[in-house]
Structures are given as structure tokens and as C-alpha cells.
UniProtKB/TrEMBL annotation:
InterPro entries: NAD(P)-bd_dom_sf. It comes from the Bacteria. This is Saccharopine dehydrogenase. SUPFAM superfamilies: NAD(P)-binding Rossmann-fold domains.
Length: 340
């Protein structure tokens, strides 16, 4: 059976990578690229700020929309719900995700609406479940992120950091919301894959909300470090003396907007249960864009190939955790280690 899939933001770094991986694994799928400029063939003019451009989605009979560009007003989400089109969103920072999830839960959903905005395309929460099949047994989850400024990076993550670095966000301690800020409260962590010991600092990703509010894990925290120890220390110092508060948005974008030619991306999950700690370490040798795009493709394939009722989902809820782990392990640029 043929499927028509629209990638809105398909001209961006992650969008292009999604299309490449999806085409290579599913040549029978018809893929359309949505962007703000006029195009020909499979290139469609779709401006997320202008719902008047969405009519072509119906004309081309799209079965599914993958959103890889920021849609602040959730126009594509509302359109997908209204027109019973499957929807996968990989773009939202935590505040926007909470708002969009509320819209979907209140709507009359007659398609599959999937939010996949957790770290690296929403796979962390599924991998947590590979360490413990019953999340009721998990008392704490810690996520440690290694981010390299040498990695290829799209604009959205840099813009999010620039807009939110001076704002407090929430982590969870014993189901209590604790207000914190980026790049404070350092914790020493020994990263795998040859990275070694680093200081890691507060970092906001939607997994904080998802693991506590959806999976009911009482203690959840996320900390990150840069490939450069000096940059990591400098950002912490900037936050401590409130330099970010006085910088303009343009200046903050300059700080976070660097993108290299490619580097590894690493994250590590530690869970604590009554019986002890377990750790999963994941390395993407081709970087974060490749891993995020692969995750989006895995979620898409799950929707295409297996039955899931019309409903609102977080992406990890689509998968059997053990199968998700095996699919990630099978990808050539992914390395995974588990220690118990």
C-alpha cells in the first residue's frame, strides 16, 4: 500500500536527514517536502504561520505529516486533528509541548497524533523502559548529555537555548517541581566512549516532563556538558553572574548558534530502583541530527507497519521497548552499552 508523507521543514538539516533515511529504508513511500518557498513536483509551499497554505495537504492526499520546524501556534497540529491526518512532531521544547499536548487531549482525535519532542527524537523514554520493564519500580532517572559544538546542528536548538537560557525551568524531586536554571548545579560524571570525567550542568528537555508527569517517575533530572570543558565552565559562569539576562536575543543566538562539520553525540541514562542502578550509554557517531532523524523514521515506520488506535501518543508509547532497542542497535552509526 502506498503512503503519502509530508515532511514540513524538509529543507532543514534534520528534515533532509529524515527524508534521506526514510527513502533508503522505505522506497515505496511517496515523500513530499513542505517549505515556505514555491516548488515543483514533490516540493510544496507550506508556511506554518499561514494556514491558508495547508489546502494542498488535502489536495495531495497526505496520510501523515512529520513536523520538523517550529510551529509556535500549533497550526499544523490543529489542521491534522481537524482533517484526521496522522501527525508526528519532533520539534517542541517543554513549554510548547505541554501546550500542544493539551490541545490534542481536548480535541476530537480521529488519527494518530504523536509527540516525539524528547531528547534525540523521543527515544530516551523508550530506552528507560528497556532498563526496567515496570516504571513503577523506578525511583529516579538521570539523563546526562554530551553536546559537541563541532557537531552539525540546526537552527531550532540554538534558538531555543537563546530564548530560554535566562528563564527558569522545572526538574522533579520526589514529585515536587523544583525551579532551576540552565548551566548551574554542576555534577561530576564519567562519560563513556572515551569522553571521560566532565562537569555536567542543568539542561531542559521535554523528557523531564514526560518521565514525571506521564510515566510517574518521582525524581527526574537532566544535565549536559559541552565537548569543550572551557565552554561548559564559561556558560556556567555567565549564568551565575546573570550575563545572559543582559544580553540581547541576537547576542545569545550568536553564543549558541555555532555548528561544525560533524561529531559524535552521546547521552547516558541512569535509573535507580530498589535493587540498584542501571545505565544505558548511547553514541551516535554521525551526530545528533542523524540520531534525531533516525528516531523520527522509526516512529514513522511503526505507524505505517503496525496497528495503533487513533489517539494521542508520546512516541515511546508506540514501541515495544526491546524492539526499539534492537532497531537502534542495528543502525550502523549507533553504539549502545548497558551495564547493570
Amino acid at each position: 500500500m502506498e503512503h503519502n508523507i509530508l515532511v514540513v521543514g524538509g529543507n532543514g538539516l534534520v528534515g533532509k536527514t529524515i527524508i534521506r533515511i526514510l527513502k533508503s529504508r522505505n522506497p515505496q513511500v511517496n515523500i513530499f517536502i513542505g517549505g515556505r518557498k514555491e516548488g515543483t513536483g514533490n516540493y510544496l509551499k507550506i508556511d506554518v504561520t499561514d494556514p491558508g497554505t495547508f489546502q494542498i495537504i488535502l489536495e495531495k492526499k497526505m496520510d501523515m505529516v512529520i513536523l520538523s520546524v517550529n510551529d509556535k501556534e500549533d497550526n499544523i497540529l490543529r489542521f491534522a486533528i481537524k482533517n484526521k491526518i496522522d501527525y508526528l512532531d519532533i520539534t517542541k521544547p517543554t513549554p510548547d509541548l505541554v501546550k500542544a499536548y493539551a490541545i490534542a487531549k481536548k480535541g476530537d482525535v480521529q488519527s494518530r497524533i504523536v509527540f516525539s519532542s524528547g531528547w534525540m527524537g523521543g527515544i530516551v523514554n523508550g530506552l528507560v523502559k528497556t532498563l526496567s520493564g515496570n516504571t513503577n519500580d523506578i525511583q529516579e532517572v538521570k539523563l546526562f548529555v554530551y553536546y559537541s559544538v563541532k557537531d552539525l546542528a540546526g537552527e531550532s536548538s540554538a534558538h531555543f537555548m537563546a530564548e530560554n537560557v535566562a528563564k527558569p525551568f522545572i526538574r522533579y524531586e520526589n514529585n515536587r517541581q523544583v525551579s532551576i536554571k540552565h548551566f548551574l548545579d554542576s555534577e561530576d560524571f564519567d562519560f563513556s566512549f572515551g569522553i571521560g570525567k566532565r562537569k555536567a550542568y542543568n539542561f531542559d528537555v521535554p523528557d523531564l516532563y514526560i518521565l514525571n508527569q506521564i510515566e510517574k517517575i518521582p525524581d527526574v533530572s537532566v544535565k549536559m556538558t559541552y565537548n569543550s570543558k572551557f565552554i561548559t565552565w564559561l556558560l556556567g559562569a555567565f549564568q551565575k553572574v546573570r550575563i545572559f539576562n543582559i544580553l540581547s536575543l541576537k547576542e545569545r543566538k550568536m553564543i549558541f548558534g555555532s555548528s561544525g562539520n560533524g561529531d559524535q553525540s552521546v547521552f547516558e541514562i541512569i535509573i535507580r530502583t530498589k535493587s540498584g542502578n542501571e545505565k544505558l550509554s548511547l553514541q551516535s557517531t554521525k551526530g545528533q541530527a542523524e540520531l534525531t532523524a533516525l528516531s523520527a523514521v522509526l516512529h514513522t515506520e511503526e505507524l505505517l507497519k503496525n496497528f495503533h488506535e487513533n489517539n494521542t501518543y508520546f512516541s515511546h508509547q508506540l514501541h515495544q521497548p526491546s524492539l526499539l532497542l534492537e532497531k537502534l542497535k542495528a543502525y550502523e552509526s549507533i553504539n549502545i552499552k548497558i551495564s547493570r
